[in-house]
Amino acid sequence: MRVVLSNSSGVPLYQQIKEQVSTAILSGELVQGSALPSVRVLARDLRISVITTTRAYAELAAEGFIVTVPGKGAYVLPLDSALVREQLLRRVEDGLQAALDAALLARLDRDGLIQILDGLLQAGHEYASAQEG
After folding, report:
1. What span, in angstroms and rounded, lies between the C-alpha atoms of 67 and 69?
2. Of 4, 28, 32, 113, which alpha carbon lies 20 to 30 A from 67's?
């Protein structure tokens, strides 16, 4: 797992870490039981405060992505966690809200928005079928 931080993005560093780690877990790059770098090692590698990495790990744990075992480290939890599902639903809602905001600016009506969504769903199903076959 590689974490890349940007000081100019306007997003707090702990949030950037949290988002990149959770994305790696959701994508399967980090699987259940995978050990994460220690808070101190990650802080050293990223050249940031231990407090920043501690906060990122604490939020990942609170959202059900990881568990921290005192003296042992942080490990990825199974994806079937109810907290992870809630997090995924929140991401879907955020994405749909952003799409709705853009659609309103473009003066796209409900039918146009649904047509775009249907097209994206169809493309997703075709991609998934191609990956299976």
Report:
1. 6
2. 4
